[in-house]
Design a protein that fits this description.
With 236 residues, this protein is α+β, with helices and mostly antiparallel strands. The protein is built from ten helices and four strands, in the order βαβαββαααααααα. The structure holds glutathione. This is GST-like protein.
C-alpha cells in the first residue's frame, strides 16, 4: 500500500493520475494547505521540503523500511519503476521522457506557479512580475506546441512526461490563458483528457487552481502559505 499526501493541485494530480494509470494500490490523505497541514514536524519527516505531494511506500522497491518519496517528478519516476509502466524502455524515448519531465519540473511548473502567485495571491497592481511570469508561461506553451507538432506525445508514446505536463496545461485558464494559439497542445490535451485514469485521477479532487478568482485568505491562512508560519515551520 502506498500512502499519498495529496492536495488537488497540478502537482498533486500528477500523482493521483499516475496511480490510476498504473493501478498501484494506494490511499489518499487529503492535506489542507490553508490550515497548514503541511507545516508539521511529522510531515517534514516524510517531505523535508514541507510541500505537497509526497508518498510513503510501505512495500518499497528493494524491500526494507517504508520509503518516503518527495518531489512530484521523483514520485512519477519511482512509480514508473515500481509498476514497470509509463517510462519507455526504448533508450531514445526514455531519454525524451526524462528530458520533458525535467523541463516540466524546472520550468513549466515553477514559472506558471509564480504567475499564479502574482496574478491570484499577491497584492494587486504589480505589473512587472505578472507580465514576466505570464510571458514566460506563454514562451513555454510555445515550446510545448513545437514538440507536440512533431510527436503525438512528449516521448512519442504516452509517458510520465505527459502526466507531469498535462495538469499544468489544465491550470492555465486560472491565469487567464487559453490554448487557442497552441493547436498541437490543444489536441494533445484533449486526447489525454479522455483517458479514464485521468478522469478518475482528477474527478472530485479538481476544485483547486481552475478558477481564476482571487482567493480571500484569512491572516492565518496567508501566514501558512506565504508568511511567518511558513517561514518558522522548518525550525519547529
Ligand atoms: N517541486 C515540488 C513543488 C511542490 C509544491 O510547491 N507544492 C505546492 C502545492 S502544488 C505546495 O505544497 N504549496 C504549499 C506552500 O507553498 O506552502 C513538486 O513538484 O513536488
Amino acid at each position: 500500500m502506498i500512502d499519498v499526501y495529496f492536495t488537488p493541485t497540478p502537482n498533486g494530480h500528477k500523482v493521483s493520475i499516475m496511480l490510476e494509470e498504473t493501478g498501484l494500490p494506494h490511499q489518499l490523505f487529503a492535506m489542507n494547505m490553508l490550515e497548514g497541514d503541511h507545516l508539521t514536524p511529522e510531515y517534514r519527516r516524510i517531505n523535508p521540503n514541507g510541500r505537497l505531494p509526497a508518498i510513503v511506500d510501505h512495500e518499497p522497491i528493494g524491500g526494507g523500511a517504508p520509503l518516503p518519496v518527495f518531489e512530484s517528478g521523483a514520485i512519477l519516476l519511482y512509480l514508473a519503476e515500481k509498476s514497470g509502466q509509463l517510462l519507455p524502455e526504448n533508450p531514445r524515448r526514455r531519454s525524451q521522457a526524462q528530458q520533458w519531465l525535467m523541463w516540466q519540473m524546472a520550468s513549466f511548473g515553477p514559472m506558471q506557479g509564480q504567475a499564479h502567485h502574482f496574478i491570484r495571491y499577491a497584492p494587486e497592481g504589480q505589473a512587472y512580475p505578472v507580465e514576466r511570469y505570464r510571458n514566460e508561461t506563454l514562451r513555454l506553451l510555445h515550446v510545448l506546441n513545437g514538440r507536440l507538432g512533431e510527436a503525438d506525445y512528449l516521448a512519442e508514446e504516452y509517458s510520465i512526461a505527459d502526466i507531469a505536463a498535462w495538469p499544468w496545461t489544465r491550470a492555465i485558464r486560472a491565469i487567464g490563458l487559453t490554448l487557442d494559439d497552441y493547436p498541437a497542445v490543444a489536441d494533445w490535451f484533449a486526447r489525454i483528457d479522455e483517458r479514464p485514469a485521468v478522469l478518475a485521477g482528477t474527478d472530485v479532487k479538481n476544485a483547486a487552481n481552475l478558477s481564476s478568482a482571487r482567493p480571500v485568505l484569512t491572516e492565518e491562512q496567508w501566514s501558512n502559505l506565504f508568511g511567518k508560519n511558513m517561514l518558522e515551520a522548518p525550525a519547529r
